[in-house]
Design brief:
By secondary structure, the chain is mainly α. The protein folds into three domains: about 1-110, no CATH class; about 110-230, no CATH class; about 235-315 and about 325-335. The chain has 14 helices and two strands; from the N terminus they run ααααααααββαααααα. It has helices at about 1-5, 10-30, 35-50, 55-70, 75-80, 85-105, 120-130, 130-140, 150-170, 175-200, 210-215, 215-230, 235-265, 285-315, and strands at about 140, 145. The protein has a two-stranded antiparallel sheet with strand order 1-2. Strand 1 and strand 2 form a beta hairpin. The protein is globular, with a radius of gyration of 23 Å. Mean pLDDT is about 85; it is low at about 325-345. It holds the Pfam family DUF2142. Keywords: Membrane, Transmembrane, Transmembrane helix.
Length: about 350
């Protein structure tokens, strides 16, 4: 997502919008009635996202389905009615964005023909290329010519899969059905988009085409964990979260380093390209840009250290008159899994 957002094109806007739409829908699905500003932000985010690419309305529908799935259709309807004018305005903004997207697509005749007779052949090819498309959803840069180190693909799969499985274990039956259904939707959408649209028309299926739906799953997983994680596991989860944060920061820097290395000295050039004489350098040379790329990694390490410190503080026995150290007495509120509008854990 970071790489695509740095390019001149609509993919970065589409991806960022899809993630923001899922975040807005999940925020609206929490137990408390959201304030007016949340409705306004959700409406603007979804309305703007609808205009990013021809397939963007599909991601808005998927994001809305996540929110409705977390609540139930009846509760979602009451939540919408209870939102009053801000909720009505948000719906109107989304409808305007969707209408604008459809009208623009029709006006430019951006309809891709589907050759139904070749659908079966396309499904076979889509299945054969699924592994490469999965790698691209993690990161293959350039013109699909700059892969990451193999270890990073395994590590990213482990992190995302671990979040998904943890949420599936602690979630309610509704959460599990939503997680499983979301994963199934991603797989089916990949097959259909690849077989019926991209492969048939000569574009070739790429991971970025399905990534807007895929990025919603980790966000849903974290929402379920923040809501359903038992209090007795909160401190351990915070320690694990510290590791996830630190590894993610290091992985992002490694990805930037891999892409930069390719254009500085080529795939077979020396690793420390910015210390020698690279064949290509950005304005100002590699040193300031490398230092700038280290800033997010350092911030991630600082966040990981803070999470670990909070976990240690939560498990430490109370000291003082009348205190009774009980390892199971701490509450999840001691660890800020969510920064505001926290809900009590349901056992």
């Amino acid at each position: 997502m970071i790489f695509l957002g740095s390019q001149v094109g609509a993919s970065g806007t589409e991806l960022t919008g899809a993630l923001a739409c899922a975040a807005a829908a999940l925020r609206l699905s929490r137990e408390e009635q959201p304030p007016a500003r949340v409705w306004w932000v959700a409406g603007v985010v979804m309305g703007v996202t609808a205009l990013s690419r021809p397939m963007a309305p599909l991601w808005i529908v998927l994001a809305a389905a996540l929110g409705v799935g977390r609540l139930s259709p009846r509760t979602a309807w009451h939540r919408l009615r209870g939102g009053g004018r801000p909720a009505a305005a948000a719906v109107a903004i989304v409808m305007l964005g969707l209408a604008g997207s459809v009208l623009w697509t029709q006006a430019l005749s951006l309809r891709t023909p589907v050759l139904w007779g070749r659908l079966g052949h396309g499904l076979v090819i889509a299945t054969e290329t699924a592994a490469e498309s999965a790698r691209q959803t993690i990161g293959v840069f350039g013109w699909q010519s700059v892969p990451l180190p193999t270890a990073l693909y395994g590590l990213w799969t482990l992190l995302a899969g671990g979040l998904f499985l943890a949420a599936f274990v602690v979630g309610r039956w509704r959460d599990r059905a939503l997680l499983a259904g979301g994963l199934l939707v991603v797989v089916v959408l990949y097959e259909l988009l690849a077989a019926a649209v991209f492969i048939q028309n000569g574009f070739g299926m790429q991971g970025r085409y399905i990534l807007p739906a895929l990025v919603m799953l980790p966000l849903l997983s974290v929402e379920v964990l923040a809501d359903r994680l038992p209090a007795r596991l909160s401190a351990r989860a915070a320690v694990a979260a510290a590791g996830v944060i630190a590894v993610s920061g290091a992985g992002q820097f490694a990805a930037w380093l891999t892409n930069s290395h390719r254009y500085a000295v080529g795939p077979d050039g020396p690793l420390w390209f910015f210390l020698r004489h690279p064949a290509w350098s950005p304005p100002g040379g590699w040193a300031p840009w490398t230092a700038l790329a280290c800033v997010p990694m350092i911030a991630a390490f600082a966040a990981a250290r803070a999470a670990h410190r909070d976990a240690v503080a939560a498990t430490a026995p109370a000291v003082g008159p009348g205190s009774s150290p009980d390892p199971d007495s701490f509450q999840r509120d001691y660890i800020s899994l969510r920064t505001w509008h926290m809900r009590p854990t349901r056992r």
